[in-house]
Specification:
The complex is a heterodimer of chains A (122) and B (153). By secondary structure, chain A is an all-alpha fold. Chain A has one domain. Chain A is 84% helix and 0% strand. In chain A, helix 2 packs parallel to helix 5. The longest helix of chain A is centred in the N-terminal third of the chain and has 27 residues. Chain B has one domain. Chain B has eight helices and no strands. The chains are: A mainly alpha (122), B mainly alpha (153). At the A-B interface, helix 1, helix 2, helix 4, helix 5 and helix 6 of A face helix 2, helix 3, helix 5, helix 6 and helix 8 of B.
């Protein structure tokens, strides 16, 4: 039952964040690229304002899997590295915290392109 | 005709119908985005929980989950299945990290014909590049504010 409740929270949190994205797309006709940028920056800002952390505590992956969670990881990484190493943390924290995702995206993206047939452009 | 009964002329009626249709398609889009987006997040949580059951600490487990989701997104994009999902799931497929993965793999495949360096290499980050640029810059601004507030307060 506890497990079910956890997953329900994840589902609802992730669902709501994606629904916000859908409303923005339908109402403003923003392109996906702009949506992604908007959500990452929002994630950083909301983390800075201590609003995103409670959402992560409540919704787990529901808050970290959406791209706003990438912003949360960036901001959180910067904060932790500053606490540990001082000023230098501003430069090292963000990418360190998100390195797994970035490297995975590059490697799998490259492999995907390698094994795909190139689209002949008209 | 129906619309004359409602006290509208033909043009007003068309506008009325269109506004209704727009509302219902917004609602439909939102419900689909909610379900698909929610489900992708649940998959992420399941992977995190499995990784943690193998004794990984929370942070590493969540890295495993991120890598797995990016792999799934890349695989589905390569198989041209993510585009099918994207057509009806909208933001439900764009906002999760699988959509970020899709935004990298999809131009990489599309521009392969232009070569390995200037095709794949240069175009891979067409969409993800701006995301990293603005994400990292925002985090540096936040870092500066946080650092200052630590010194002065």
């Amino acid at each position: 039952m506890d497990l079910f409740l956890t997953y329900l929270k994840v589902f609802i949190t992730g669902g709501i964040i994606c629904t916000i994205g859908q409303v923005i797309i339908d109402k403003t006709k923003l392109t996906p690229a702009r949506i992604l940028v908007l959500f990452v920056v929002l994630g950083v800002v909301l983390t800075g304002l201590d609003i995103y952390k409670p959402i992560v505590d409540f919704g787990g992956s529901g808050a970290t899997v959406p791209i706003s969670g990438f912003g949360y990881a960036l901001a959180n990484g910067v904060k932790e590295e500053i606490d540990k190493n001082g000023l230098l943390g501003i430069f090292t924290g963000g990418i360190t915290a998100t390195s797994a995702g970035i490297t995975a995206a590059i490697v799998f993206g490259y492999l995907g392109a390698l094994i795909s047939k190139s689209n002949i452009k008209k | 005709m129906n619309y004359t009964k409602m006290g509208m002329n033909e043009k007003e009626y068309t506008e009325y119908v269109e506004s209704k249709a727009e509302k219902s398609s917004l609602l439909k889009n939102c419900i689909i985005a909610f379900i698909i987006g929610g489900l992708i997040c649940v998959i992420g949580q399941v992977i995190t929980d499995i990784a943690m059951s193998y004794g990984l600490e929370k942070k590493l487990a969540s890295s495993v989950s991120t890598i797995s989701l990016i792999f799934i997104g890349a695989l589905l994009t390569t198989l041209k299945l993510y585009q099918v999902l994207g057509k009806f799931a909208g933001a439900g497929s764009i906002v999760p990290i699988t959509g970020f993965s899709n935004s990298i793999v999809s131009p990489a495949i599309e521009y392969k014909s232009e070569g390995f360096v200037l095709g794949i290499g240069a175009n891979m980050f067409k969409v993800a590049g701006p995301v990293l640029v603005y994400g990292v810059c925002a985090s540096v601004v936040y870092g500066l504010i946080y650092y200052m507030s630590k010194i002065f307060f």
